[in-house]
Amino acid sequence: MDANGMTEICLHQLTLSGVREGERVIVLSQGNQRIDYADAFLAAGQRLGAITYHMRLPAPIPTDGTWSVGKTGLAANPEAVEALKQADMVVDLIFLLFSPEQMAIQASGTRVLTAVEPAPLLARLPPTTALRERVEIGAELLAKAGTMRITSKHGTDVTYKIGMYPTVAEYGYTDQPGRWDHWPAAFVFTGGADDGVDGQIVLAPGDVVLPFNTYVREPVTYTIEKGWITDIRGGLEAELIKSYMAEFRDPRGFGMSHVGWGLDHRAQWHGLTQFPGGMGMELRSFYGNVMFSTGPNNELGGTNNTPCHLDIPMRGCSLFLDDEPIVLDGDIAVKEMQQR
Ligand code: FE2
């Protein structure tokens, strides 16, 4: 995509995000990553009359390559965090999610938009107000439920006690003070009670393991008791998941993290093959997927801040809230939430 095209999609993004004349918008990047995104957001902000600048952190010191969440270059840079707290909106081109620094920036009233996916994907899945409405309908249903049960013909049957943690709606832009979102996104989630998740989850061939960014080929069976994974078994993917989780040497990685479903009818299940450089937002969003995840729940206000986090979008599942069908065999069952 050329620079003009990138600026146009960022202009659409910032317009929906409510950026207006005189607002302070900071674009945050590190090293030489996404400099073209920064330029496009700056140009878009300027066209909307915002006061905008680019904060560029040094490239992170190379590590062993493990993708761990919540540790950012802002941790040792309180002056930078203070500056970001002064902004009305921060465009995060790094991926600050799960970090205490992002939480502090949001708590000050600054809204935060993460944009790290490949540019062609940003262009193909622009946020819309119609999609937001459908996501918010899902969030309303989720917020008033007490239990979530997920089943599948592959053997999944797991029940989450919910209601202890807030419900989060992601629809790909943010126009409210202190609110975070991620572009692209169209899904809702909450977390189970710390000791309130029990049952079995069976990943089926074709389900997606993030951050491996791979499709499961052989079933993987998780046993979950009182909110903790007690067993993972299966073939190659089960061994890879166990090996990855063991590397963190952190038993809290076996906790249960967020859970919910996706609503973007434009998102494609084969998105990983089309955009291999991304982090899988298209898969998290695709219509009728049920996504569970493991590890931290501090994003929702819990105490588990382990850096060991996997998101697993699954196809063909059914999801019930207080026994009411929400997703049936991978299709949205509530009329107001359906694609249109
Ligand atoms: Fe996640």
Note poorly predicted spans: none
Mean pLDDT, to the nearest integer, reads 95
Helix content: 25-40%
Q: Give me the side-by-side strand order of the main sheet.
A: 14-13-10-6-5-18-19-20
Rg calc: 19 Å
Largest sheet: 8 strands, antiparallel
Written as H for each helix and E for each strand, in order along the chain, the element string is HEHEHEHEHHEEEEEEEEEEHEHHEEEEE
Q: Which molecules are bound in this entry? A: fe (ii) ion
* Overall number of strands: 20
Enumerate how many helices there are, as a single number: 9
Global structural class? alpha+beta
Strand content: 25-35%
Shape: globular
How would you portray this structure in words?
The chain is 25% helix and 28% strand. The chain has 340 residues and is of the alpha+beta class. The protein has two domains: 3-116, Rossmann fold, CATH 3.40.50.980; 125-171 and 184-337, no CATH class. It has an eight-stranded antiparallel sheet, covered by helices on one side. The chain has a five-stranded parallel sheet with strand order 2-1-3-4-8, with helices on both faces. Strands 7-9-15-16-17 form a five-stranded antiparallel sheet. Bound molecules: fe (ii) ion (FE2). Fe (ii) ion (FE2) binds next to loops.
